[in-house]
Amino acid sequence: MADDYELLDSGGGRKYERFGHISLVRPCSQALWRPADQGQWHRATAAFDREDGNRWHNRGALPKEWVIETVGIRFRLSGTDFGHLGIFPEQRAQWKWIRRAVSSSRRGAEANVLNLFAYSGGSTIAAAQGGASVCHLDASKGMVQWARENAALNGLKDHPIRWITDDAHKFMERELRRGRRYDAVIFDPPTFGRGANGEMYKIERDLEKTLSLVKSLLSERPMFVLFSSHTPGLSCTVAANIIGQAFGSARIEAGEMLLEGRSLACPSGIYCRAVF
Fold first, then answer.
1. Which distant-in-sequence residues (6+ apart) come within 8 Å of 228 by Cβ?
2. Hey, which of 94, 95, 109, 212 would disulfide with 126, CB 3.0 to 4.6 Å?
3. Please, are residues 14 and 33 in contact by the beta-carbon 8 Å criterion?
């Protein structure tokens, strides 16, 4: 299977990555060790730092957009003003797990999956590739459109995917009133974010409500709930405790999300799964 992503090196608070034919140096707060071979980093196509505000170096060398494939999913990438590209490659192991969990389930093509805070659609595409119908929700209209384009890149233009731009809590409350339920829910809430109409989300304040709504939206025979986070200080143990309390009958699996390649593995968030 083709894979265009690779962590080339990391250290000194930065990471050196390859996305297809483009290589980039960007901040990575967890990379407190020494780089293996920083003498090679000058070969990077471009770099980004936050030392004096958000700033690209040699951004002109970046194409306006380019396409890569990783773990069987194609993504359209583009350098944003915040240093993001439209992909979080530390989620690759979760995308493989989602696709496998859906395709191997007895529910299979009957499965109905909700993906909240869904960004550019990696988890949506993985669930769809597994055969599920998916509801993709993000507060950013632009990101929802980006995800739709990624779905089309993967031959899923006509797959049953609902594309929703909305505040997550308001949408889930409406779904409950409509009587709609989901066999699996995936969510990666921001540390701090704003909804489609300026609603404010703070994970330390709002995660409990999010979990309550997610639990209420599960079908009578759910498959899984997958929570992930990039919030500093939120450990695997904390996530397992929170998810375990919310879904006591499920098997709880938790760990670090990692950037991997030629270099030392680089922690980039945590995940926790409740498997029913």
1. 91, 94, 187, 188, 257, 269, 270, 271, 272
2. 95
3. no
Which amino acid does the sequence have at 125?
Answer: I
**pTM (two decimals):** 0.94
Name residues whose C-beta falls within 8 Å of residue 190's C-beta, 6 or more positions apart in sequence.
Answer: 117, 201, 203
Q: What is the pLDDT of residues 235-251, one digit of tens each?
A: 999 999 999 999 988 99
How does pLDDT run across 114-151, given as a tens digit for each residue? 999 999 999 999 999 999 999 999 999 999 999 999 99
- Name the 3-class secondary structure at 225: strand
Let me know how long the chain is.
276
51-100: pLDDT as tens digits: 878 899 999 999 999 999 999 999 999 999 999 999 999 999 999 999 99
Domain spans, the chain: 5-77, 89-275
Q: Has domain 89-275 been given CATH number 3.90.79.10? A: no
5-77 is classed CATH 3.40.50.280: no
The C-alpha atoms of residue 268 and residue 87 are separated, in whole angstroms, by 13
The answer to whether 47 and 20 are in contact (CB under 8 A) is no
Helices and strands per DSSP (H, E), number in the chain: 6, 16
